[in-house]
Write a structure and sequence with these properties.
The chain is an alpha+beta fold and 296 residues long. The chain folds into three domains: 47 residues, no CATH class; 101 residues, Ubiquitin-like (UB roll); 122 residues, L,D-transpeptidase catalytic domain-like (Beta Barrel). Helices cover 24% and strands 30% of the residues. The protein is built from seven helices and 19 strands. A five-stranded mixed sheet has the order 11-10-9-19-12, with no helix packed on it. Helix 4 crosses helix 5. The radius of gyration is 35 Å and the shape is elongated. The protein starts with a helix and ends with a strand.
């Protein structure tokens, strides 16, 4: 006999009786209750427990600044990292704050810079846009990826893209421009790899500014526009343009048949460093943004 819910309620009717649940009615009729929803809920709970749990995971690591090591202990890094079911979770703000304190210690963006010329002469130069500048965001990524991979020592990142050196304030890759010699030298890994004649700004009229700079950007080809020292506007197409001081840069000068010597004394540039086409191409291919350029 099949019992309806109304009949079941009558069977159980009496003082204080309550309506019979549908599951009980189904049981009286021999049906098995559907508890799939409960199973799904339980499964969901287990999944949440597996994926969303979070356990503190402090660590120790060394951060390499040339021959100096900044050491972080597990006590230092409490609250920086957590182990989860799918990997690690970081508090980027705390890691960033730490690297900001290191910027105060290691950044040397402006001021006086000591420089050793290709002749081995130590000179002191004014730096307008060159120096060691820690890249916080990239350094955070280096540390987090390194620690997650189990590395014991990690390297910070610099805006120059160069490897930090405590011995050199411009690094071991740079372009050296000697106005007195009318020469340009390209250095890589502390070694001179290329040399060329050049023509700098006309002496006493549009002299090339001296100092320690960094490549701001480069373009190939490019159109140079400006006004010369006599108030005349000019527009010049060049194949390779390397800007290192606002409107002052290095570029090819195909209109010139000679470079070097004393040309700059009476027939120099508007302030840029003029180069033979092949030299401009060579240097253009080697340098990049933040590459140091020293002019003296």
């Amino acid at each position: 006999m099949i019992v309806s819910k109304t009949q079941a309620d009558k069977i159980l009717a009496g003082p204080g009786a309550r309506e019979m649940p549908q599951a009980a009615v189904s049981a009286m009729n021999g049906a098995v209750p559907d508890d799939s929803a409960g199973k799904d809920a339980a499964a969901g709970t287990n999944e949440t427990m597996t994926e969303d749990y979070s356990v503190p995971a402090p660590f120790s690591v060394n951060i390499r600044f040339d021959e100096t090591m900044e050491k972080l202990t597990k006590k230092d890094t409490e609250g920086w990292r957590w182990k989860t079911g799918s990997g690690y979770r970081w508090d980027d703000r705390k890691v960033s704050a730490y690297f900001d304190t290191l910027k105060e210690k290691y950044d040397t963006p402006y001021g006086k810079v000591n420089f050793m010329t290709h002749k081995g002469v130590l000179i002191q130069m004014d730096s307008s846009n060159c120096g060691w500048q820690l890249n916080t965001d990239a350094s955070v990524r280096n540390l987090e990826n390194g620690v997650d991979s189990g590395e014991q020592t990690v390297d910070p990142a610099w805006n120059s893209g160069l490897v930090y050196s405590s011995d050199s304030e411009v690094g071991d890759k740079y372009v050296e421009v000697s106005i007195s010699e009318q020469k340009v030298f390209l250095f890589e890994d502390g070694r001179e790899v290329y040399e060329t004649d050049c023509v700098t700004g006309t002496r006493g009229v549009s002299e090339t500014e001296k100092g320690v700079f960094q490549v701001i950007y480069k373009a190939s080809p490019s159109t140079l526009n400006g006004t010369d020292s006599y108030g005349n506007k000019y527009e010049q197409e060049v194949n390779y343009w390397i800007d290192f001081n606002g409107s002052q840069g290095m570029h090819d000068a195909t209109w010139r048949s000679q470079f070097g010597g004393n040309i700059y004394e009476t027939n120099g540039s508007h302030g840029c460093v003029n180069l033979p086409l092949e030299a401009a191409e060579k240097i253009y291919k080697e340098v990049y943004t933040y590459y140091p350029v020293i002019v003296y």
